[in-house]
Amino acid sequence: MISGKDIDTLRSIARAGGDYDAIKRLLAETQWEIDADEVDLGFLRIFVPDVIDERYRLIIGYHDPDHPPYSLLTFSLFPDSEERIAAFNSAFHSVGDAITRHLGAPIAKGERQLSFRTWSYAYQRWSLPEGEFTLVQGEFDIQDGMDITLWIQPVGTPIEETVHL
């Protein structure tokens, strides 16, 4: 599961905003693997190892003319089938508990229902001085199926923008 040191690095990346050089310096201090460094497109794709041989995918969008700097840390992907909902929910709560150990209790929790699904998706949010950290169950990339992703966005980003309530 994600470590306190990893959370500290994510918080530092959020503080760096769109400063590519600062982000690269922070990444150089980790064991994280940079998979794509698309300077022209303004994003990095990184794999973050955890202690049990899992890898989480981190996307850092540091320069996007349509969005302020953000990060997306995907913990788990599941096939989009009702049979996988129990495992999907269990994984979400496990990640939420791990983040809570490092950041304290979330300021918001809830669920939302997509019109084309019979199940609901949960979310939790932590508002920190460096940004809004929102753990979301969703389908960010339909090709990947259902995901559990931590969205890290600038302070004040409305939760409705993140979870599409």
Structure write-up:
The protein is α+β, with helices and mostly antiparallel strands. It has four helices and eight strands. An eight-stranded antiparallel β-sheet has the order 1-2-3-4-8-7-6-5. The longest helix has 19 residues. The model has no long low-confidence stretch (mean pLDDT 92).
Q: Strand-residue fraction?
A: 35-45%
- Any idea how many domains? 1
Per DSSP E runs of 2 or more residues, the count of β-strands stands at: 8
Structural class: alpha+beta
Distance between termini?
Answer: 28 Å
- Helices and strands, in N-to-C order? HHEEEEHEEEEH
Which sheet architecture does the biggest sheet show? 8 strands, antiparallel
Features:
165 residues, alpha+beta, eight-stranded antiparallel beta sheet, 4 helices, 8 strands, 36% strand, globular
Strand and helix layout:
Elements: H1 4-16, H2 20-28, E1 33-38, E2 43-49, E3 55-61, E4 70-78, H3 85-103, E5 108-113, E6 120-128, E7 131-138, E8 146-153, H4 159-163
Antiparallel strand pairs: 1-2, 2-3, 3-4, 4-8, 5-6, 6-7, 7-8
